[in-house]
Amino acid sequence: xxxxxxxxxxxxxxxxxxxxxxxxxxxxxxxxxxxxxxxxxxxxxxxxxxxxxxxxxxxxxxxxxxxxxxxxxxxxxxxxxxxxxxxxxxxxxxxxxxxxxxxxxxxxxxxxxxxxxxxxxxxxxxxxxxxxxxxxxxxxxxxxxxxxxxxxxxxxxxxxxxxxxxxxxxxxxxxxxxxxxxxxxxxxxxxxxxxxxxxxxxxxxxxxxxxxxxxxxxxxxxxxxxxxxxxxxxxxxxxxxxxxxxxxxxxxxxxxxxxxxxxxxxxxxxxxxx
Length: 274
Prior knowledge:
The protein is of the alpha+beta class. Helix content is 34%, strand content 29%.
């Protein structure tokens, strides 16, 4: 019997209700198809969960069924990401570069984004886990539950709660390893706790922009193994949205903070120069 996914029936109905429109309201064809697809997937997932008996079975008291299937990423600049002239031109335009591949219930995402903010500001955003909710798409709760130094690295254990589809919430526990000298943080699941994802491996790497002083280049890698019972369309949503959301939120909030900091220090600089 699988015991991995929490489903709240009331939340499911409320989520579906949020997709309804009034009889007089007309939606564009693309939006109508999108909403229909979401409802169809939600219905399929509900039937699957009932058949498997998985509803309401999440527990932080239980250990994960394995100790890791994915190879953890190495800290440092990602060797799997190579930027040529085309990729550099895309980044120079302000757009992120990303790549997504999927095989069965495993998704692999890679991304690079240039951020108009210093590296310390970007790291401040990435490490503020307790403030992720409200900033990071598809994260409704996020809390550090353990943290300590381990030699040259720092360990940060974080509990995430993420709405996947209307009414369906995934919970997962991540074990982060921060290595400041390599400008990287990697993570896997914390296998001491039962997570809804079968396995996860991720990597953030932040370095100064190669040509623009005061700006940053951010690399992101993630591998995700979803539970075998999930429909492939849900796996596609999880992987594709995760990689796009990751590049958007960190750029948005880092640049917002950098702009605010610049405005706050400008009067002081003018006073000194006077």
